[in-house]
Amino acid sequence: MSSKETKPILTLRNIRKSYGPIEVLHGIDLEIHPGEVVALLGENGAGKSTVSNVISGTVLPSSGEMTWQGASYAPATPREAIDAGVGMIHQELLLLPQLDIAENMFVGRYPMKGGRIDRREMESRAAQGLKRLGLDISPRRKVEGLPTASQQLIEIAKALTLNARMLIFDEPTAALGGEETRQLFEQIRRLKAEGVGMIYISHRLEEIKQIADRIVVMRDGEKVHQFETADLPIRTIVEAMVGRPMEQMFPPLARPTEQAVLEVKGLTSPSGRFRDVNFSVHKGEIFGIAGLVGAGRTELVRAIAGADPISAGTIILDGQEMTPRSPREAIDKGVVLVPEDRKLQGVILDHSIGENIAYSNFESVGSRGWISSGKVRTFADDNIVRFGVKGKGHQNAGEMSGGNQQKVVIAKWLARNPRVVLLDEPTRGIDVGARSSIYEIIHGLAEHGVAVIVVSSDLEEVLGVSNRILVLAAGKQTGILDHAEANDVSVMELATAFG
Q1: Chain segment 192-239, per-residue pLDDT in tens
Q2: I need a labelling partner for 28 at 20 to 30 A (CA). Which of 104, 124, 159, 305 fits?
Q3: Is this structure's pTM higher than 0.90?
Q4: Which structural domains are found in the chain, ordered by start?
Q5: Tens digit of pLDDT for each residue in 79-103?
Q6: Phi and psi for 135 in degrees, rounded to 5?
């Protein structure tokens, strides 16, 4: 029996949500059936997360009604939703860094025995959940210091231990590579077979075609399209999301010169996360770095930016050795990093856009140790316009969409006119419209002679923006591909060459 021949497990009828005079959801109707995956798509700010938060008990609707398994459903807290059988996997990591993995997976619902936490049972169940997703790590290890991708898999494993009848996935693969995504999809297919209903939110539209049964598109707080199949051209989905015809997603490749701006020779990490890496990046080149999660991509660019130590090798900038011992040293020499976790490492969320941009450019907004508020405003406003940030300098960064937060991070570094820009997952969790504008910024950098390095778990992205692609496998450099020879097969062959 197909899911559409069963009664809905969840229904939403005329759901509205207002914050003061501003209505952000305008009468949303939605049905989820047992054993189906419904893709909920839309640009940042379309209302997807608000709908998800209403269903999961994080946000109370202003009006409308929901039913769950045929009965009235109005969770006032996430705990009530979880107890009813509804779980949510958030895009933003909610793990407690000082607790170990098992404690994080069962926080608030620890298995008990004789009035005490049953550690053996908790660790056994946690290990099973991690194994299901291919994560070979001890449940006793603290979360602090784990890579973003590993933390995302822990969040997913945590949700899978709920034995929920309904799961909401909010950008679950944003930090994952191909193999981790495949393992997650295997679990989703198993859950479908068990009759679990799912809402799947993602900006990776190729994933939607693989995993979803239906597509619901939102725009500006309204449900604007519903497709009864996910087997659609990507362009059709994108145009439904943005409400206009889309041009080509990736701009034409820049034409680099023969002049090497950055050279990396024999670079090796003391932890072994990468070893004996060698490459050069030319003036005006976009150089991609690909590989599975854990391949050492992030650690490599952090080392180039002076944020992580190296045990061997050299970094050469414009013919001069510049191997940095700190981020400050790299920045002063013209090498800047846009990190993968913009909320933790890129912006200060409760400070204004203007302040965030100014923090990396004090020499431009003051003199003799004094900061001029007028110069901060002018400098911020100029760069807000220059990089297409949708916001005002006085707005808090935390009030902005993910795409605009990322533009602020990019703007604060590009205002320094760097020689080398390192971008780690530049479009993670960003909608298709904002992604296009960030690609334009990247292309513009290359056009102006900047050497650009892009690390991405999104294979389509790294193929689309890069002149050449370095592939890592378990910390080992397995090849460098020119754009003409790079495709999903050739990259994945190198990414899985562990010998």
Answers
A1: 998 999 999 987 888 898 899 999 999 889 999 999 999 888 878 888
A2: 159
A3: no
A4: 3-242 (3.40.50.300), 260-495 (3.40.50.300)
A5: 899 889 998 887 667 788 889 999 9
A6: -95, 105
